[in-house]
Amino acid sequence: MAIKNLSPLDRAVRGIVAAVAVTTALFFPEIIGDPLLQGILIAFGLLNAISLVFGNCLVYQIAGISTYKGPDAKDT
């Protein structure tokens, strides 16, 4: 099981970023223009949404970063 490493504020920001990225890419493609960039933006939004749901960011884990300060936080 992955250890939580995202604070509630971090998760909220990721939720907003995910919603804006996916919404922009799907409903306003003329703003993005390039279909490849559109796909990258959707992938970025979905990865942020996954991090939001699970409370874990793989990049933070690799870098040894944690913004989570809950009772089951792991000190590294």
Number of helical segments? 4
Number of strands: 0
Percent of residues in β-strands: under 5%
SS-based class: mainly alpha
Encode the helix/strand succession as letters: HHHH
Distance between the termini: 17 Å
Task: Describe the protein in words.
The protein has 76 residues and is mostly helical. It has one domain. Helix 1 packs antiparallel against helix 3. The longest helix has 20 residues.
What is the gist of this entry?
The chain is mainly α and 76 residues long. 66% of the residues lie in helices and 0% in strands.
What would the keywords be for this entry?
mainly alpha; 4 helices; 76 residues
Write the layout of secondary structure elements.
Layout: H1 8-27, H2 29-32, H3 35-54, H4 58-63
Helix pairs in contact: 1-3
